[in-house]
Design brief:
By secondary structure, the protein is an alpha+beta fold. The chain has one helix spanning 21-29; strands spanning 8-14, 36-42. Strand 1, helix 1 (21-29) and strand 2 form a beta-alpha-beta unit.
C-alpha cells in the first residue's frame, strides 16, 4: 500500500480586509508542506 501525504486545507476568510490579502497569500505560499489547498471565503466585502 502506498504512503499518501495528507492534503491540508487552508481556509482564508476575508471581510473588508483587502489591504492584507497580499501579505496573507505570501505567508501561505512560504509554507514548506507541499500538499495543501487554499480556500478563500469573502462574504460580500465592500472593498
Amino acid at each position: 500500500m502506498k504512503n499518501h501525504t495528507p492534503l491540508i486545507s487552508i481556509v482564508l476568510t476575508l471581510y473588508n480586509k483587502g489591504n492584507y490579502i497580499e501579505d496573507q497569500l505570501f505567508s501561505i505560499h512560504q509554507q514548506t508542506y507541499p500538499h495543501w489547498e487554499l480556500i478563500i471565503v469573502d462574504d460580500c466585502s465592500t472593498d
